[in-house]
Design a protein that fits this description.
Length: 597
């Protein structure tokens, strides 16, 4: 299922701008006859939690109204094309819509999205950790059914929810985008339509395996944002990390910034968030009594918001004594700066005093991310206190900058790239990076085909994106899966390659591995959470019957290992078991009979 292969370039030309001004029905590609290019479907789940975007005036003021949003969106041409859906014979439920197709979309995809409404709908000021768990549970239940996810949420606590979900969603491989608006979508002049459209386009067209936040033409890492303006459409800022994407005339993705899980584990959610945590902001004249009261049981951890680069008064022994008593009682204290930008360090004596008493440095985390991380880590009851402190100091989801302050990621030396750059008269770093990005997809795919792990490592060290697709949208993981290069597949997965990438024909690496009977690769991909998309499963029954008729036991084993039910019916209503009985392939009959017993 999930997502699309990242494009060879970094832009989707004009999609957002075109869609915002488009009032005519999108051109339709008929599915029958001599159509040479089928249009792939991408499914996005929109989880509506409430918030301003769906609010309506009521006697007590603006409030969310249940069962209204989907019907309203169907009347907005830029968010639903009923004529297109009818011509394409797309079956839509009451809460399912289809985005108009744009000729300027770089990938020939139809984005179909379903609205799932939580009950009750909430003003985000009423959001609690229990509601985070409800959202996470919905993501878990629907993870394999959809390619991407959009969460509609109020802006007041959106940064807290985005941060919390980023930690709760472990081994994430699909795009999750939170968005909302400052003005209800039903108003004549609002920001909700553009925000929802941008979030849908990004969730449907790209595999950005993060919990993100999209607002006012920018896509941010969810655990890096904070709300900075209550009256502007440009309500959020990411002080210590540039946006992951900018949606102007083009949607430009900063692929080098995208965070990727470096493991081969399946997606799962962690819902045991510790509620005995809080935020304590240091201010001039704060009393030791106030700090003492705040740190009393059942408090197990606090985010201490300090001055500048992590400083607190060191001429206040009464204050420091209360903090020391708390750490001695195993209360975990995470030090974050009150400044929008910058990081915690022990440069000053006032900051070193906190470090010496066991306070954990929070680097450049936002208070929202720090609180969510503290709740997440303290909720891991299987860890010791030292392990929890170590985990807090590590970069888990891209929430903090782990490299030394002032360090720069630069393009490493590569004789091959340098020679091509010289031939093209390229000299500056930006142009050199552009050459690298243009060459990486083809070079990486060639290396994946031949099993050249050293070449892949060299491209990775240069900063090349090993998840980027070639002219057909095929990533190195697609190629390595076809060839059965298990060592390469494992390396690509550990460097963040996504198992949910689709080429322009809608095929995932798992489907490629099935087609070429690469059983070891199938097992590894499944271990990492790979599964076939609805589109790939559409004609599975007929394919299974064909394999059974031909006695292709290896092909059937590949489909079975990929988690597919081998008892599906083909186009004529017959099952593979019935077909193979008629064909008389004894070995296949025994294999299918064992599965059915």
């Amino acid at each position: 299922m999930a997502g699309l292969a990242e494009p060879t370039g970094s832009r989707v030309c004009g999609v957002l701008g075109k869609a915002l001004c488009c009032t005519e029905p999108a051109p339709v590609l008929e599915l029958g006859g001599g159509c040479s290019r089928a249009m792939a479907e991408v499914r996005v789940l929109v989880i509506n939690t409430g918030g301003t975007i769906g609010m309506v005036p009521q006697s007590e003021g603006l409030a969310p109204e249940a069962n209204k949003l989907a019907g309203a969106l169907k009347k907005i041409p830029i968010l639903h094309d009923s004529a297109y859906a009818a011509k394409m014979h797309i079956r839509l439920g009451t809460d399912t819509l289809v985005l108009p197709h744009s000729n300027q979309q770089s990938q020939n995809k139809t984005i179909i999205y379903t609205i799932l409404e939580l009950s009750p709908l909430l003003d985000s000021s009423n959001m609690t950790p229990a509601d985070w768990r409800k959202i996470a549970k919905q993501l878990e239940e629907n993870y394999e059914k959809y390619d991407g996810f959009v969460i509609l949420h109020g802006t007041d606590t959106m940064a807290y929810t985005a941060s919390a979900l980023s930690f709760m969603c472990e081994n994430l491989g699909k795009t999750i985008v939170l968005t909302g608006s400052q003005v209800p979508i039903y108003e004549l002049r609002n920001d909700g339509r553009a925000n929802l459209l941008g979030a849908l386009l990004i969730a449907g067209q790209f595999v950005i395996p993060e919990v993100c936040l999209y607002f006012h033409n920018k896509l941010y890492r969810g655990n890096r944002v904070t709300k900075v303006d209550a009256e502007s459409f440009n309500a959020f800022s990411s002080p210590n990390l540039p946006p992951l994407a900018n949606a102007e005339i083009d949607i430009t993705i900063n692929w080098e910034t995208v965070w990727r899980a470096s493991n081969t584990k399946k997606f799962e959610i962690h819902t045991n968030m510790n509620s005995n945590v809080g935020l304590l902001r240091i201010f001039p004249g704060i009393t030791a009594a106030a700090v003492k009261a705040f740190l009393q049981s059942p408090m197990e951890g606090i985010v201490l918001e300090t001055y500048g680069s992590g400083n607190a008064p060191n001429n206040r022994p009464d204050l420091l004594d209360e903090l020391k008593k708390a750490t001695d009682r195993d209360v975990v204290i995470l030090n974050c700066t009150q400044c929008l930008r910058g990081t915690v360090s022990s440069l000053y004596a006032t900051g070193k005093a906190l470090k010496d008493m066991g306070v954990v440095a929070g680097a450049d985390m936002t208070p929202e991310a720090a609180l969510a991380k503290l709740s997440y880590v303290l909720g891991k009851s299987e860890l010791t206190l030292d392990e929890k402190k170590k985990m807090l100091s590590e970069n888990l989801r891209g929430e903090m900058t782990s490299m030394p302050v002032g360090a720069k990621i630069t393009l490493k030396d590569s004789r091959f790239i340098q020679e091509i750059a010289r031939y093209l008269h390229v000299s500056c770093k930006e142009e050199l990076a552009a050459v690298r990005d243009a060459l990486t997809p083809s070079l990486a795919c060639a290396a994946a085909k031949t099993g050249d792990l050293d070449a892949l490592k060299a491209l990775q060290n240069m900063g090349g994106n090993l998840s980027s697709g070639d002219f057909d949208g095929r990533t190195p993981l697609h190629v390595a899966s076809c060839e059965g290069n298990l060592e390469v597949v494992e390396y690509l997965l550990k460097t963040g390659a996504t198992v949910y990438a689709k080429d322009r024909f809608g095929a995932t690496p798992l489907m490629n591995a099935i087609q070429f009977r690469q059983l070891d690769v199938i097992y590894l991909l499944r271990t990492t959470g790979a599964h076939l998309s609805n589109q790939e499963l559409m004609n599975a029954g007929t394919e299974l019957c064909s394999l059974a008729f031909n006695g292709d036991i290896d092909g059937l084993k590949a489909w079975h290992l990929a988690g597919v039910d081998l008892n599906q019916c083909g186009y004529d209503g017959e099952t593979p078991h019935n077909v193979v009985k008629a064909a008389g392939h004894v070995e296949v009959i025994e294999f299918l009979s064992q599965l059915m017993s």
